[in-house]
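Much of our argument rests on the idea that a fold can be written as discrete symbols. Part of our work consisted of pairing the sequence of a single chain with a tokenised description of its backbone. The amino acid sequence and the backbone structure tokens for this protein are reproduced below.
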Amino acid sequence: MGSRLQRLRKRAGWTQEQLARKARVPLTTLREWEQGRRAMRLEAAVKLAVALSISLDELVGLKR
């Protein structure tokens, strides 16, 4: 999931800092998600999907 999140962020043209701010999540946590070092909770996934204007299905890789 980390590499998918990174691809979606880059597709949006955002830095990690920008996405963390837009999704209102800690930057260090976002970095750990992208590196696959931390599991993402549902509440955080919703925040990221909203910030990226995508569905949860797309975020988790069920929709391409």
Notes: Helices lie at 2-12, 16-23, 27-34, 42-52, 56-60. Residues 2-58 form a domain with the 434 Repressor (Amino-terminal Domain) fold (CATH 1.10.260.40).
